[in-house]
Amino acid sequence: MKIPALDLKKQIAPIRQEIDAAIKEVIDNTSFILGQAAARFEQHAAEYSKAKYAIGVSNGTDAIALSLLALGIKSGDGVICPSFTYYATAGAVASIGAYPVFADIDGDTYNISIASVEKVLAKNNKFKIKAIIPVHLYGQCADMDGVLKLSRKHKIKVIEDTAQAFGAEYKGKKAGTLGDCGAVSFYPGKNLGAFGDAGLILTNNQGLAERLKILRNQGNKDKYHHLVLGRNNRIDTIQAAVLDVKLKYLDEWNRKRQEVARYYNKNLAGLGIKAPFVPGCTTHIYHQYVLRAPGSNKRFVDYLQAKGVDSRVFYPVPLHLQKCFKYLGYKAGDFPEAEKAAKQVFTLPIYPELTQEEKDYIVAQVETVSSLSAKQFRS
Questions:
Q1: In angstroms, rounded to a whole number, what is the distance separating the alpha carbons of residues 212 and 233?
Q2: How many Å apart are CA 177 and CA 241, to the nearest integer?
Q3: Residues 190-204: pLDDT tens digits?
Q4: Which CATH number fits domain 8-103+111-247: 3.40.50.620, 3.40.640.10, 3.65.10.10, 3.90.226.10?
Q5: N or C: which end of the chain has fewer CB within 10 A?
Q6: What is the DSSP letter of 323?
Q7: Fold of 250-374
């Protein structure tokens, strides 16, 4: 049996006519850049998130970079972010000339460790820290109470990396609406995915929203009158139209992902593998269902892949050990929780369209590989 990590064909098929009609509308009116469908999606996204403003942009990476620029982060400033996340978080920081300042993660949630951030802020850093980017990794929110407390104490800006958690909630508030900005990715593989690249920025600050709209659109508010040095980071109208259709189904899709996660949790209990830990302050929308092996994740991933189960590692190399960030001067051992997680975590397929037969097969394969002697899983 072959079970992919995600099956977009199964997701799209039931709503294909709606999507085709939405795309046709854009083609018929030829408003391909910041057209009516883009404005409509922004309105619906803001209503869904209960944010005052939603600004459609080109992708999730640009959503972070634009947020930094709009908040006044400049070349040479320091921006704290977790070492255990996707490259884009720190890559966006570096792209505007700022410096990623890494922190370790919590060993249970894999989100940024408040204790580690406190240590970073207490150091005599070689550049002034102006912002922090908590990543809501895998689909659940970081400790935003802790993040916001530190931001107030140290007067730093907060940009929530909501790329994997659009629709999750922290104490009743949607992810991406608690900090100064929330940066969202609609990469096709996300719970709410476009048919290409697209992103969104959420904010409750009117002035910030206006700056973001200007920055994404070549620095102009009125055509050919450029107020600032802007960027070409507008959302494509066709992508917005697709997302507007799919947004109506997001909560139901997330609910079904949660059902699959509960099934896995129940049927994999007692195998010596650590299931996802979800603190009471946040919901989890399971962009990824992540298990933790007692030893190396490689044996689990290799076995499952050989049996047709598309298991993966998110992420095998922490950012502080990536070659592209070598210039920052970090070394192995600096962030032990991030390094340990990279060697132990692995995913199982989790999406709404998984059949009972597929779920049973996945569980059976995990049970089989887990029953092998612990000695075999030592690196």
A1: 10
A2: 23
A3: 999 999 999 999 999
A4: 3.40.640.10
A5: C
A6: G
A7: Aspartate Aminotransferase, domain 1 (3.90.1150)
30: left (phi over 0), alpha (psi -120 to 50) or beta: left
Cα distance between residue 64 and residue 324, in whole Å: 19
Find residue 346's DSSP bridge partners. 291
Q: Give CA angle at 62 (81, 255), nearest 5°.
A: 75
* pLDDT tens digits, 238-267: 999 999 999 999 999 999 999 999 999 999
β-pairing, 99-103 with 78-82? parallel
Whole-angstrom CA distances from 57 to 67, 136, 186, 347 are 11, 19, 10, 29
Q: How confident is the model at residue 372 (pLDDT cuts 50, 70, 90)?
A: confident
Q: Does the bond joining 315 to the residue before it have cis omega, within 30 degrees of 0?
A: yes
| Enclosing H/E stretch for 185 | strand 181-185
Domain spans, the chain: 8-103+111-247, 250-374
Torsion angle defined by CA atoms of residues 329, 334, 337 and 343, in that order, rounded to the nearest 10 degrees: 70
CA neighbours closer than 13 Å in the CB half-sphere of residue 343: 11
> Tokens in use for 252?
């139901």
* Pair 339, 319: CB distance under 8 Å: no
Across the strands, what pairs with 130?
Answer: none
